[in-house]
Amino acid sequence: MSIPMLVLVALLFFWIVGATQRLKRLRAAAGAAYAPLASHLRQRQAVALALAHASRPLLGDEHALIGRLVETAQEAGRATDAAQIRNMRGSSLHEIGEAEQTLGQALDQLVSALQDLTSGTGPVAAVTELLRQRDTLQEQLGADRHLYNHAAQTYNDALHIFPTTLVAALLRFRDAPLLAGAIATARTGSSRPMPMI
Asked: What's the Cα-to-Cα distance from 182 to each of 99, 130, 141, 149, rounded to whole Å?
């Protein structure tokens, strides 16, 4: 093999290694950005369960909204656990998005039922505090979602720059799923936007 050919092969090898390391670094950054989002999701799930418990004296133990809130909070917790086990691969984030959207709807319905009862003392004061915590978490989740989407979009953009696309296809790098609301979806169908959480 001639010297120019050896140089070309060496350059190609080092470029492939560099491109692979960059993609791994960007993918890890997206994973790191997801961590605080997951933490706040778990907090919201806990607040939802506490709110269901605190609402029982006001609405009655058998109220349908309480049962639905408990069920959706538990389902959201299972989706979050499954995503952690699968290391955010496949449809994990999409499933979290759907579960959290359903939880958000159940929370809103319960809040609507409680809106005339959230002043005073006793169990009502506990409900008021949990509603305040829910509102704070909603703001934090919005900021977390924005940071995660930015990191995921940066990684996805790197995947689609030629000739890095060849390395990505060869080593099976996949787009990071995005959470709807902050940043538009990536270029490929595998990064479909998910329900806002």
From this structure: 19, 26, 11, 7
